[in-house]
Amino acid sequence: MGPFTLAVDAKSSGGISSDASNRKMQELQLEPKKFFASVNARDENPFDFLRILFEGVIAGGTAGVVVETALYPIDTIKTRLQAARGGGKIILKGLYSGLAGNLAGVLPASAVFIGVYEPAKQQLLRNLPENLSAVAHLTAGVLGGIASSFIRVPTEVVKQRMQTGQFTSASDAVRLIASKEGFKGLYAGYGSFLLRDLPFDAIQFCLYEQLRIGYKLAAKRDLNDPENAIIGAFAGALTGAITTPLDVIKTRLMVQGSANQYKGFFDCVQTIVREEGPSALLKGVGPRVLWIGIGGSIFFGVLERTKRFLAERRPNDQRYSKTE
């Protein structure tokens, strides 16, 4: 949808003609639509894939590192709760175990995710009707999740093995996992990871984007940093609670190592329910919701701030209208 503008030649008339008045009324009636998904810029602003990719990579990598560093202890507690079978005792020492090695994976994974998500989202918003903006956000979230999963899964496997005390360093973890379990050991639980993270990514980012669109429509202005952070926290906490059972299953499959306690996703579910009861599928829900809620606040707050910082430093002729 192109921009709705009114051009009045001051030389030809001292007042506004009836036609011009009608056009102005039509413009005012159509104006609210510009708040939906910002696809109003699709005609006047060319799609600069490389710029969007670059800015997405920088913003995503920055946000990922900040949130992972800040909330790593909560994630460690959540992992130990989920990995404990029956009434196993939770150790509260070494809550930053594996952080350095994890950051080496989080940085490129977050960069790849947002680097794929942003251009995919903006291209979809240009091609889909405005009332299907949620479809664009869901689809872009899935695409970003798939692209980053090739980095995120080995990172997650190493991180969780270290959090549960199986290894003391990331390099040892990678070497020993590969030697004992083969290359596929680094992708243990890959299917369950996708089953958890693809819905999580799609739902979280869709919720976040749609809430921002609705808020901007109501406020009729751009959102500030605290508002972005609050919306990110709500979207993250809600999505985290919904996907907790999938996270428990993913954790069990990733930390089992060569013991092969579970034959696969469904066997893992059946075994947990049979031996520990259905409530075990909600293990760690408190730390998970807290971690992802606060993490969503930090991640999206840093993400939007970084995107705005990069946009302000573009050449003047490249400072296009922001898309959602």
TrEMBL record:
Location in the cell reads: Membrane; Plastid, Chloroplast membrane
Q: Where are the Solcar repeats?
A: 50-123, 132-214, 227-309
* One Gene Ontology biological process: transmembrane transport
**InterPro entries given for it?**
MCP, MCP_dom_sf, MCP_transmembrane
Short name of any one Pfam family annotated for the protein: Mito_carr
Q: Where is this region: Disordered?
A: 1-23
Tell whether Transit peptide is among the UniProt keywords. Answer: yes
Listed under GO cellular component are:
chloroplast membrane
Put simply, this protein is called S-adenosylmethionine carrier 1, chloroplastic/mitochondrial isoform X2
Instruction: Tell me which species this is from.
Output: Sesamum indicum
Lineage, highest ranks first? Eukaryota, Viridiplantae, Streptophyta, Embryophyta, Tracheophyta
Q: Which gene encodes it?
A: LOC105178314
